[in-house]
Amino acid sequence: MKDPAAPSDPTVVSLVHLGCARNLIDSELILARMAEEGLLVSGDPADADAVVVNTCSFIGPARTESEETIRRYEEEKRRGALRHLVVAGCLVQRYKHRLERRFPLVDVFAEISDYRELARTLRDLTRGRRVRSYLASPGLREPERDAARMLATPGSYAYLRISHGCDHTCGFCAIPAIRGPHRSKRPEAVLEEARELIGAGVKELVLVAEDSTAWGRDLGSELPDLVEALAELEGDHQVRVMYAYPNNFPWRLAELLRDHPRVARYLDIPVQHAATPVLRAMRRAGSGDQVRRTLDRLRTEVPDLEIRTTLLVGYPGETAADAAELAPFVREYGLGRLGAFTFSREEDTPAWDLPDPVPEDVAVERYLEVVAARDEVLAAGQRALVGSEVEVLVDERAQHGGEPVAVGRTERDAPEVDPLAVLPGVDAPVGARVRARVVDVDDEMHLVCEPVAEPAAAPAAGEGAR
Ligand code: SF4
Fold first, then answer.
1. Rounded Cα gap, residues 189 and 116, in angstroms
2. In the chain, how many domains are there?
3. 301 close to 258: Cβ distance less than 8 angstroms
4. Over the stretch 142-151, which tens digit does the pLDDT of each residue have?
5. Could you say which of 365, 384, 403 is where a domain stops?
6. Which of 168, 213, 279, 343 has most ligand 1 atoms within 8 Å of its beta carbon, as the pocket-test mutant?
7. What domain range includes position 309?
8. pLDDT tens, 264-317?
9. Distance in Å, CA 423 to ligand 1 centroid
10. Which of 351, 384, 417 is the last residue of a domain?
11. Which of 116, 311, 345, 398 is deepest in the core (most CB within 10 A)?
């Protein structure tokens, strides 16, 4: 930690980000607003006079991580290594003033907002002025275009939020209570943000929302219209869709996934479970059969589609027979890209009062079965790629043992959640696309590749990404 006695002007601030890609956009907004207020932003909290923790409170483990992080920086403050501590984001939005007593060394708590007020408050705080210790949200965030962001992603890709909130009421999820009902951002707003990102050199726009397939329903439009418009923007970018809801799927999207060279042949579609009684208990729209029909149709209409999903194991009332559907489901649909979670009982969610909890050890056992099936499918799928040619988008230019290494992803993989593609000995800039042959798969299921031609800079505009 920085020596607080050392003179420091301007004040150095750092942001500790927790949670999902959607929250990362909020972190990027906070970083940009802090820079606008003249604060010097550092990527290393150890350099900082002030730390902002942007929290997540989706489920128990995420909340625990947020709370532990706050305690860690409270400890830094206690021993004089940090001057100011600010806590923002979902945890504050959810628990509001209840956090103040639990974390007495936090200077300011800030609910979700456009974060201008947070940045001004932090600036005033660092100048020794009196500030309000609790910044309430002025209301649900307007679905306008986001203000300028300071990208925390490598520059090869950026997240693009297309809507706020969610109209579903899944029993396990606190998000509607935290982020409100669904509001689509206007297409012009999304396109303007996208143009700026492409202009800044971003090669992959990763579309995120609480429920991306709901985009446009409140505007008389639908997601494929937006995806197509984004894909058609001038540039050499690609568009990737995350967080699709499996019901009322806008099927023209399948055509774009299959045919449009600038739409990644990849879909993140969290289904949560495959057994009808559990989906009903979860208040999900649709049954196990409907989930399977949606995946079957996707597989038929979009050959080679890489599907990512999420499964939640151990929901109250889940029987051994319900749980036994999951591993075969993962194998049948080739779901090697899968986020699995055990149920976490959350306040302010419909599942809070449900009877018939699944004992933790049973839930963990069922979870491990799902993860084993996933790992098996992923390993087989990755090994089947050995010998094939792929295109790697470089996300990181690294060094290993004095040798350059380009680290990136193929179109089959989303950033941060899916396996990587590694090019040992290759020195290529972030954002380059490298034609490569898969020569091996490492222990973590990352593809090891070698270039089939000299690494080149990103292709000229108009060249397909597939
Ligand atoms: S679809 Fe369900 S799980 Fe996803 S954000 Fe909405 S309520 Fe939560």
1. 19
2. 3
3. yes
4. 777 778 899 9
5. 384
6. 168
7. 157-384
8. 999 999 999 999 999 999 999 999 999 999 999 999 999 999 999 999 999 999
9. 37
10. 384
11. 311
